[in-house]
Amino acid sequence: MSSTSKYIIEVKIDVIKTLKLLGITAGALTAIGLGTYYIHQRIQRSKRVILRDEVKHVLEPFELTDEQLRRVMANLNTEMINSLKSDGDIDKNDLGMFPTYVHRGPNGQETGEYLVVDLGGSNFRVSHVVIEGRNRINLKNKIFLIPHSLLLGEGERLFDYIAECLQRFIDDNGLNLNKPVDYTFDLAFTFSFPCNQTSLSQATLVSWTKGFSCTGVVGHDVVLMLQQAIDRRKSLKIQVVALVNDTVGTLMACSSIYRDCKVGVILGTGTNACYFENIENVPKWTGVRNQTTKQVVINTEWGALGKHACLDFIRTSIDRELDESSLTPNQQVFEKMISALYLGEIVRLIIVDLVQRSILLPGRMHKSPSLGRDYNIFLSLRGSFYAKHVDDIECDTTEDLSVTSLILTSIGIQEPSYDDCYIIREVCKTVSLRAARLAAAAIAVLVNRVNLPSVTVGIDGTLFRHHGKFKKNLTRTLSRLVPRTHRLVLSEDGSSKGSALVAAVHRYTNEIATSS
After folding, report:
1. What letter would DSSP give residue 396?
2. What is the pTM of this model?
3. 3-state class (DSSP) for residue 395
4. Radius of gyration, alpha carbons of the chain
5. 165-211 confidence digits (pLDDT tens)
6. Among all residues, which ones are annotated catalytic?
């Protein structure tokens, strides 16, 4: 017990003795004690109300009204229309709105054996997919890590490594056994980077994202580069037949089960979406126009929304600070508001702001690592607060917020108070809710553009798959913004099954055209 605590106890005892000498009874003492206690509690409650008002003032810019969401919807729709008119000039328009040359979903008649390469991060996946008809799909896959040097080196070396891993996968699984000598695998290439496609199997890389910066790839046909790497290995008999964005794979995988699935969305580390658009609404379309190509799936690349200031009316000082310190300033503005890669950082920056205002964790910003173990490195280390922390804290329903306290302790905040935990939970709720509502507004635009009596939206990504509150808030907001019937469905194995279905639909369509 500290000397201060002993002093307080001794003073209290002396006061009680003095009151007894004056003839004040125990009952009176009790009444005085209770009165003092209730006065103290009232003061504490009034302090907490003031504290909450200060926090609300900081969080208010993140709390979007339905009117603001509808303005986001209108701006997104305008950007989409403008980008569908042009050739995807990123200096003029926010969005790529790339035609994918996918014209329909599967009808259940597609069959065959396919390989899939899914490249979209620091590792990639190779899959073997066998389609035996509607909802009868078997697959096996393996994940290969990409050495960091290949993410930054010559692009040719990256594609050679992918071809090498394809060979290993085929050999390890005996896929060539009992095959004719001249058997050639059809391969779908799931490539989660902005590309300008000129056919299903021709795609020029617009820009690298997600930490990639391989030289000699931007401005080149990535399908051709992969095919050339495969051809350099004489024992590999593979033909790359389709380039598939991960959103398109998500849509196709869901469409194999729900015939009215017309929208595919990724809500994870990044965010993007695709949807079926009528070709008559795509002035920049230069492909075939006939009875079989009435529609085309458009890869929106909606994460780039806001590049030309159409979201400035909802951007906060925290959003701007995050953007300026990112590796891609003034790019992916919309994505930086809602994706899992950035949610934790938004929360961290708000916490730092509250600390600097002396509302939260008093005195923590003035300590150095050598002054004590309760120094909170996350307060000064960018990216040290994760989306998983946001979700776990947001969902903390324990009476004493023990879950939040454990999480904060695990990242370096020793002995956080109840008020600290309460405020940080409010921050997490607010940031998560804004992300879910913005995602709902964007999805609402696509559902409205599809313009069918009933629309299924296939969604994949960690935010929708694992963050329960995010999913509930997304669903609730979308129901208010879209009056027509719709449903949100978790799309399984989009990057493998869905991409294989793109290749299968392409093969089936060609077979029908050849036989007629």
Report:
1. -
2. 0.85
3. coil
4. 29
5. 999 999 999 999 989 988 999 999 999 888 989 999 999 999 887 76
6. 125, 192, 246
